[in-house]
C-alpha cells in the first residue's frame, strides 16, 4: 500500500518501524477502493509522569469521511497493534454502513428483480 504517510514527533522513525507499519497496514488492502490516504503520526511524550508515552495517531481518509484512531502504550509496537485493531473495527463498520446505504438506496425489491434479470441472461 503506497498511500501511507508517516510523521514523527520527538524521535526518528527507524527502518524497522517503517516496515512494521507498512506490514500492519497491508491488511487494509481490501478497503483500498475507499481509502485515498493514510496518515500515521508517531509521538513520544517527554513528560516522565506519563507512563504510556508512545502515542500513535492515525487518520484514514476514505470516500466521504475521515476515520481516526489513537492509541498510547509504553511500547511503540504495542501502540501500533492497538490502533490497527481500532481501525479495523471502524473500517468494517464503514463498509457495512456503505453497503447498507447502497442497498436501501435502490430498495430490496428492485435489487431482487435486478438479480433475477441477471440470472436469466
State the gist of this model.
This protein has 3 helices and 4 strands. With about 120 residues, the protein is of the alpha+beta class. Strand 1, helix 1 (about 15-25) and strand 2 (about 35-45) form a beta-alpha-beta unit.
Task: Give me the count of strands.
Answer: 4
What structural class do you assign from the helix and strand content? alpha+beta
The stretches of 5 or more residues where confidence is low (pLDDT under 50) are none
Q: Note the total helix count.
A: 3
Percent strand equals 25-35%
What letter string, H or E per element, gives the SSE order?
Answer: EHEEEHH
Question: What does this protein structure show overall?
Answer:
The structure is a single chain. The longest helix has 31 residues, at 76-106. The two termini are 38 Å apart. The model has no long low-confidence stretch (mean pLDDT 84). The chain has three helices and four strands; from the N terminus they run E-H-E-E-E-H-H. It has helices spanning 15-25, 76-106, 108-120; strands at residues 4-9, 35-44, 54-62, 65-73. The chain has 121 residues and is of the alpha+beta class.
Amino acid at each position: 500500500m503506497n498511500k501511507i504517510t508517516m510523521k514523527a514527533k520527538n524521535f526518528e522513525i527507524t527502518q524497522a518501524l517503517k516496515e512494521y507499519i507498512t506490514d500492519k497496514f497491508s491488511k487494509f488492502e481490501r478497503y483500498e477502493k475507499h481509502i485515498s490516504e493514510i496518515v500515521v503520526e508517531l509521538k513520544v511524550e517527554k513528560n516522565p509522569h506519563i507512563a504510556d508515552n508512545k502515542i500513535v495517531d492515525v487518520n484514514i481518509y476514505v470516500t466521504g469521511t475521515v476515520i481516526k484512531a489513537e492509541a498510547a502504550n509504553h511500547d511503540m509496537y504495542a501502540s501500533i497493534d492497538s490502533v490497527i485493531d481500532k481501525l479495523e473495527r471502524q473500517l468494517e463498520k464503514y463498509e457495512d454502513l456503505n453497503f447498507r446505504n447502497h442497498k436501501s438506496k435502490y430498495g430490496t425489491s428492485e435489487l431482487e428483480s435486478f438479480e433475477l434479470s441477471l440470472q436469466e441472461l
